[in-house]
Amino acid sequence: MRLWFNLLCPDPQALMLFYQALLGLPEATASRSPIYRALACEAFELGFNALPAYGLLGLQGREPLPGTLPPVTAYATFMLTTPAEVSEAAGRVGALGGQVLKPPYATYYGQWQAVLADPQGHAFRLSTEHLPEGVEKPAFPRPQDTTQA
User: Which residue ranges form the domains of the chain, and what is each CATH number?
Assistant: First the structure.
């Protein structure tokens, strides 16, 4: 099985180039069309559909309002090999036109990850299953008691 994950976006070419520069993935040229671009590796294909795809997919009325960020209802997590790779890539995202939403940090489940947004506003994570040497995983966050004033 292979996962194909697609983002609907105003400029598929620009978004493909952002992820290509960030992740170093090759373009899946066989998938290219006037409204579609994709990057691929052995395990997945990351596709970028232009806005006319909403109609082609029967998703009319679910487009984001013009001038607004897409809602976050799903996000991709790209698993990298080392904490240094996560930190280095997160450090480059701004220069590529993206945004760091949460800089690299230790998760309670023992991963080193960063939460980012691409230049067209889609949220995604970079993560690795290892913490940097000397960094301990934090305790599970406890919800704050909202009953006290």
Answer: 1-65 (3.10.180.10), 74-131 (3.10.180.10)
